[in-house]
Amino acid sequence: MSAAVIAISLQKGGVGKTTTAINLGAALAELGFRTLIIDLDPQGNASSGLGVHPPEDAPTIAEVLRREETLENIVEPTAEKNLFVAPAPTGQMLAEVEAQLVAEMFPQPRLKDAIDACRDDWDYVLLDCPPTLGRLTVNAFMAADEVLAPVQCQYFALEGLRDLTAVVQQVKSALNPNLEIGRYLLTMSEGAKKLSQEVEADMRQAYGSKVFKNVIPYNVKLAEAPSSERSVLKHASTSKGAKAYRAVAKELSNGRSPKAR
Ligand SMILES: Nc1ncnc2c1ncn2[C@@H]1O[C@H](COP(=O)(O)OP(=O)(O)OP(=O)(O)O)[C@@H](O)[C@H]1O
Ligand SMILES: [Mg+2]
């Protein structure tokens, strides 16, 4: 079985996309899955949060999207076994690449081609998308098998899900028939609070079994971990945040075992 490619996306900022990419990735890696996180956010938080700081002249995902470099050549190991990152460039470069993508008459499957060239090397490829539905995200959706949307247990949580669904449907019908519409992961839940309970109930009613059973709690260890340049699994192994991401990784992999290599 070749890699499952999952785009972690929601066009709302600060909902836990990068936190999920890092820690779900780390939890899959801990289960023995060879996992690659592709950092598609110009802020580069998925790279820096795992201690990956490419030198300024090193090729990054920007060169891969320009078809100047293979994915294999830019992948960096992290300090965690089985966990690798394809870093984003610092500065404006990814924004420039996105402007180039906008100029294309038809969106080209740039990321998909790059992943296809090394699909067998990976069990999971997680795409940390920027908080927009622009061309970088469309390129991620063209490459993905499914979209995972983190939903923050806050006011207006369901806002934006309809736009996300519409874009996923458009990409599915025009560009990537394989794309499966989302799974939803509830994040930053304060289980004792009425608001979190309401959001959870609304989500389960609207999306049923597409919502992960396991919920990510609000846990300060998750916010601290990036400054230690490690996942929460290494930063605070027994924290509620670490346990929750481990549980989601089990739920996601659902009995699948790592490929023998
Ligand atoms: N479960 C959580 N508990 C506590 N803090 C969290 C949790 N999840 C994320 N955070 C914190 O919330 C902030 C936003 O999270 P994150 O960067 O993962 O969101 P994002 O969706 O990737 O944001 P952006 O849209 O800007 O890329 C970060 O400071 C992060 O450390
Ligand atoms: Mg992010």
Structure explained in plain terms:
This protein is an alpha/beta fold. It has one domain: P-loop containing nucleotide triphosphate hydrolases (Rossmann fold). Helices cover 40% and strands 14% of the residues. It contains twelve helices and seven strands. Strands 3-4-2-5-1-6-7 form a seven-stranded mixed β-sheet, with helices on both faces. A hairpin with a 5-residue loop joins strand 3 (76-77) and strand 4 (83-86). Helix 1 (17-30) crosses helix 12 and helix 6 (110-116) packs parallel to helix 7. The longest helix is centred in the N-terminal third of the chain and has 14 residues, at 17-30. The radius of gyration is 17 Å and the shape is globular. 48% of the residues are buried. Adenosine-5'-triphosphate is lined by residues 13-19, 41, 45, 131, 187-188, 216, 218-220, 222-223, 241.
